[in-house]
Amino acid sequence: MIRNLNIILIFTSVVMLSGVYALKFAIEHTASERTALIALIDSQEGDLSVLKADEAVLNQPGHIEPIVKRHQEALAIVPVAQKQFGAFADLPMRPAQPDNAALDALLRSLDAGVDPIDAILTSEGIE
Questions:
Q1: What is the pLDDT of residues 28-39, one digit of tens each?
Q2: What is the pLDDT of residue 127?
Q3: CA 28 to chain centre
Q4: Using CA atoms in the order 5, 8, 10, 14, what is the torsion angle rounded to 10 degrees?
């Protein structure tokens, strides 16, 4: 009886030991993948900062102006004139008093049971 129990316990210990080692190797593999991903992200962030610096240099007006002058005739590019922008005087003024007559008529028709939206839909043939 004791002998059988010892054999079962030894077998169980061997199975558990192999499970622990398998788990250890899986965790080490996951840790190495994580380290590789962190290194890749750091590399890509460095590349991104270099690209942003290049973009900042290339977008400077001193760099763009000679290119624009060189291709101005081919692209028909002209400087922006002040008259292309609107003025505040061109904006319509707000009405002095709101038009309450239309709103009152709408509310009266709703109180009377007439739905103006339904009337529009039926006149258009939409149900």
A1: 999 999 999 999
A2: 66
A3: 36
A4: -160
How many Å is the maximal CA-CA distance in the chain? 106
- As a whole number of angstroms, the distance between CA 113 and CA 108 comes to 9
Asked whether the beta carbons of 55 and 49 are under 8 A apart, the reply is no
Ramachandran assignment for 115, one of left (phi > 0), alpha (psi -120 to 50 degrees), beta (any other): beta
Positions in the chain whose pLDDT score sits under 50: none
The residues near 23 (Cβ < 8 Å, ≥ 6 apart) are none
What whole-number distance in Å separates Cα of residue 12 and Cα of residue 24? 18
Q: What are phi and psi of 26, to 5 degrees?
A: -65, -40
What are the CA-CA distances from residue 51 to residues 30, 46, 55, 60 (Å)? 31, 9, 6, 15
Nearest to 106 by CA among 115, 119, 94: 115
Stated pTM of the model: 0.45
- 116: nearest Cα among 37, 52, 107, 125: 107
